[in-house]
Amino acid sequence: MERLYFRPLVIEDKEQLLHIYSDKDAMQYRGSKPLETIEDAEQMVLQAHQEWENKTKIRMAVIQKDTEVLIGTAMYFFESPTAVEIGFSIGRDFWKYGFGQEGTEGLIEYVKAHESGVTTIIGIARSGNEKSIKMMQNIGFTEIADYDEEGKRRFELVIRD
Q1: Fewer CB within 10 Å, N- or C-terminus of the chain?
Q2: Which H or E element spans position 99?
């Protein structure tokens, strides 16, 4: 990644996490409700650490290199032994700069480097989230036509045969 890098979330990220994840409009396509308090943001960091330790979900801070500012989070979890679902969220202040695509491509490379048994990466987008859908298509994800979870679309990217 040219402009971004990943690192573990730290408790000092709580203010920026609250700023990003309390924006109800920006969070409309996420599965979880927006954060409301600084304690919610602290809990998000603590939960991320626990999930990482338990290997149930890997959630990382996405940092803009030139400013050292946290602009969002990237995460993945195992759907099966050979498939991970990825997710990427960036704050509204950082939209329209190509960070979503750069970060998603970086997350794919991270999974390739750290999860040798993974052959498929999955992306889920709510039907109205046209920017995420277009971005996944641009990267090379293929939509799975028979996916039937209401209001969501499933995309897959094969990274290894």
Answers
A1: C
A2: helix 99-114
